[in-house]
Amino acid sequence: QVQLVESGGGLVQAGGSLRLSCGASGRTFSGYAMGWFRQAPGKEREFVAAISWTDDRTYYTDHVKGRCTVSRDNARNTVYLQMNSLKPEDTAVYYCAATTRMRFPNVFYYSSAQYNYWGQGTQVTVSS
Predict the structure, then answer these.
(1) Cis omega (within 30 of 0) for bond into 105
(2) Distance between terminal CA atoms of the chain?
């Protein structure tokens, strides 16, 4: 059974940093990808970042580009999201996701419908 477990969320002041981790168990995602989505209260879940397990290609939403870095550790089957210069509008529950529905690279990297494994979410709160 595949499990994704996130950690690293918390409360941080605006301008601060957090690093989220997502450990995967049950299978590897070679040839596919893992990503991060977030959902703020009253809003739809939105794409944040993704990384291909095939190569080093990464994808970001414009809202976080330049402030966040997604990376992976193959040996640990873990993906990370380093978030810097955090803003109050980054406040949300952050979800780790993995897909075996589409090979990467893929133009639909941002589509939550293409991700078939999800973590339980970790809260990130940025105070002003």
Answers:
(1) yes
(2) 40
Do 96 and 118 form a contact (C-beta atoms < 8 A)?
Answer: yes
Which residues, at least 6 apart from 41, have a Cβ–Cβ distance to it below 8 Å? none
pLDDT tens for the chain, 128 residues long, are: 999 999 999 999 999 999 999 999 998 888 889 999 999 999 999 999 999 988 879 999 999 999 999 999 989 999 999 999 999 999 999 999 999 998 888 888 999 999 999 999 999 999 99
What is the Cα–Cα distance from 91 to 120, expressed in whole angstroms? 16
Residue 34 contacts residue 72 (beta carbons within 8 Å) = yes
Backbone angles phi, psi at 89, to 5 degrees: -75, -5
In three-state secondary structure terms, 55 is coil
Token pair recorded at residue 29: 């995602």
Quick one: which H or E segment has residue 43? Answer: none
